[in-house]
Amino acid sequence: MSVLFRSSNRASAARVSRTARLIWTGLIWTGLTWTVLAWSSPSQAQRSYRVRQGDSLHRIAARFNTTVRDLLAENNLRSTTIRPGSRLRIPRRGRGGRRSNIHVVRKGETLSRVAARYRTTIGRLKRSNRLKSNHIWVSQRLRIPGRENPIRVRRAPLTEPQETARDFAKSLGLGSVKTAHWLLSKPPKPEWIAAARVPPDTRDDATSIAKKPEGSLSVVSPAEHEPPPAPTPGTFQLPLQIGHMLRGWGSGAGGYHLAVDIYAPPGTPVHASETGIVAYSGHGVSGYGWFVMLVHPSGHVTAYAHNRQNLVVAGERVERGQVIAKLGNTGLSAGPHLHFMLIFDGRHCDPAPLFRPKLRQKNGDAVKVDRAVWEAEAGKPPVRCLARSARPHPHRAALARQKARREKARRRRARARRQKR
Ligand SMILES: [Zn+2]
Known about the structure:
The protein contains ten helices and 18 strands. The protein is an alpha+beta fold. It has four domains: 2-40; 49-143, Roll (Membrane-bound Lytic Murein Transglycosylase D, Chain A), CATH 3.10.350.10; 161-388, Glucose Permease (Domain IIA), CATH 2.70.70.10; 391-421. The strands form five sheets. Strands 6, 7, 9, 10, 11, 13, 15, 16 and 18 form a nine-stranded antiparallel β-sheet that branches. A three-stranded antiparallel β-sheet has the order 8-14-12, with no helix packed on it. Strands 1-2 form a two-stranded antiparallel sheet. Strand 10 and strand 11 (301-307) form a beta hairpin. Residues 1-9, 30-45, 94-99 and 203-223 have low confidence and may be disordered. Residues 257, 259, 261, 339 line the site of zinc ion.
């Protein structure tokens, strides 16, 4: 095109260059439109990418706003080693896409752009990610407030015994979202504990459908943990036979995390920690994704959050060690893990000292805690327990503080007005 500009006739040169510019602009616009269309078109969701020299999975993940874990899963890769020239499938986002509550920062993006993209505010983004400044960096993972991982409903039709269990649950006031909220903050009703106590064979209806513990369901064969020991009363079976602790009870800002997070690959069987009755099984409790709550004869409640799939229904009786769910990443969760809660008298307790076998750290060592047993007649819990309200979530705590400040300012103004009069 530069040849055109070397023309001796200035007027014609100007005309030609204007035409060239128009054509050029037109081309760019067409290109852009195609790019935008390609990017937003749902049929394009299944993108692929040819690996180039010097690429890493990390970089590719950042580039396509996905994660290394999702890339590995999508391409059935066992390691992060990739060869130049090979093709990678890029996991689709949106339609049931995992992790759409997480945004991976791309080059040139600012906090305000990310906020605009997800129709939220900088303030909310900063609170959700506990950011002290507006500074963000490439491939940083930002949690998008108010956006949960879409929950894929994969429910097999209920079997007849499950239908019966469901009816039984209803007759007791079990199984609803209200029940779940009740158990998160209040002691179980006596009739619920009584129902958890009734051995399956003496119940007059067909609610005893407890299956044999399915230890072989695991997708990962080598067991990192020794098989669960014979149940000791007053202890809880470790709900996963593989995996390691991510974070413990009382961790996080202000110690708000009154639960234990255990990592294991998605799909890993989740086992009931103790014999009991399913009090809730669903995805109606905000933040927890697919969620199971069990009431035990001792009055304890155990809860299992972020499951990929629940395998039990409310009203069913389960045995210690029975598989009740598959581990997942549903709800407000930044990666596959089990969020396990032990609740007694409406207070959230540290289960680690009660787990049999002990929880393990990533390096395979047992977590350093003194083993404890919760005696039936114990006056005081043998482990740390706190009401949920004692350690509010930092996000909620910030909102509460803000509300208190506003309220104080309002009262001050009211007082000032009264004094003026
Ligand atoms: Zn957790």
